[in-house]
Every structure is written in structure tokens, then in C-alpha cells.
Amino acid sequence: MLHILFLLSLLLSTSHASVNDFCVADLKGPDGPSGYPCKPPAKVTTHDFVYAGLAAEGSTSNIINAAVTPAFVAQFPGLNGLGLSAARLDLAPGGVIPLHTHPGASELLIVTEGLVTAGFIASDNSVYVKKLSKGQLFILPQGLLHFQLSYGKSKAVAYAVFSSSNPGLQILDFALFASNFSSSLITQTTFLDPEQVKKLKSVLGGSG
To answer: What sequence ranges are listed for the domain Cupin type-1 (predicted)?
Structure first.
């Protein structure tokens, strides 16, 4: 009998406990390791949990013939603290998302249109590459260099789902050739020809 009374009292006490079901981001606050501060619950509406930004096709009129449209916490505040986000990839014929990493998340790639080659390089330098078509999924582990490119004669569309509301992004080519990283240091650390480094920096806008 005492055992039953104890369970009933525990149930009653926990039923009134405060539960944080969500934490819609207050984007005016600082973005720290645990995310943004929460928007006051009284100001949260259904609209905070809806995002239509991936419906529109991204512009592929650029040097990589591709576009990435993010739905990270900065664009979709309702994701804050929930450990997931998404992005849309549009690739014109020959389009490529260059080698890059997401330091904060693994990525699940879902092809919805066209043909996409995706791959990643493991930490032991093993390479995993797969040609994907509509309806196929490919996993890209957290922090590893990976890429996507269109290999068909028509455009391709894919969606990426990430295991973080802010997965982060660093594109290898841009880090090397669109920054002020010293050309001499790039040459020494990558074994690339100085003239090639100079050419790539002129294309991508780097200095140094």
C-alpha cells in the first residue's frame, strides 16, 4: 500500500513539472555552443515551426553551376536545440558542390531529381563514391571531406538533412584560394605549383 501511495505522489508531482518541449531561437541573442536563447513562449506561434525556403530553386548561374539553400537555425528558428536541419541542393548539368566538411553534423543526402554522384574520404584516406538516382539516400559522416556533383544531362535536385541545427560548413577550395592564406604557405603545405595557386586565387578572389 505504501508503495502504491509513493508511486501516486511521484506521478502527481512530475505531472506538474516544467517541460521544455522546444526552444524557438531568439535570433537577436548570442549564438553560443548550446544554440540561441529561447524566444518567450508567449511569442511563439505556429509560424515558428514552418519554413518554405526550400521550395524555390536556387540559382546555378555561378562558377560551380550549383546552389545550396540552407534551412539552418538562422533561417528556421524553430530548429533551435532540436539537433537537425536541412538544405536544398540544385545542380545544373556539370554542377558540383566542391569538397567540403560539416564540422558539427553528419549529413543524409536524398536525391529527388536527376543523377548525382556523391562521395566522401574517410580518415584513413579510403574513398567511398556512389552514383545516385531519384529516391536513393547516401550518408556522409560528420567532419569528413565530401562532395556532390551532377553527372546527367539534366539538372539534379537533392535534399540534405543534418544532425545539428547548425552543422557548419567549410569548403576546401574556398578555404585555400578565397582567403588571405599565404600563397607560399599553401605551396609548402599542399605541394601545389606556385603558378597554379596564383591562378586559383585570381579565380576565387583570394589574397596573400
So the answer is: 52-198
d(CA 185, CA 208): 10
Query: pTM value?
Result: 0.84
What does the alpha-carbon distance between residue 71 and residue 88 come to, in Å, rounded to a whole number? 8
- Say if residue 107 carries a ligand binding annotation: yes
CA torsion sign, 27 to 56 to 69 to 106?
positive
16 is in an annotated binding site: no
Looking at residue 79, what DSSP letter applies?
G
Q: CA–CA separation, 113 vs 142, rounded Å?
A: 25
Q: Is the dihedral of CA 122, 127, 128, 133 positive or negative?
A: positive
Q: Are 61 and 109 in contact (CB under 8 A)?
A: no
Per the annotation, does 102 bind a ligand?
Answer: yes
How does DSSP assign 10-25, residue by residue?
Answer: HHHHHHTS-------B
If the chain, 208 residues long, is cut into consecutive pieces of 10 residues, what is the mean pLDDT of each piece? 56 53 90 84 93 97 96 95 96 96 97 98 97 98 97 95 94 92 92 90 88
**How confident is the model at residue 4, as a pLDDT?**
62
**Is the Cβ–Cβ distance between 117 and 140 less than 8 Å?**
no
* 69 close to 90: Cβ distance less than 8 angstroms: yes
**Which CATH code of 2.60.120.10, 3.40.1350.10, 3.40.50.1110, 3.40.50.200 fits the domain covering 41-168?**
2.60.120.10
Domain ranges of the chain: 41-168, 175-204
Q: Establish whether 47 is an annotated binding residue.
A: no
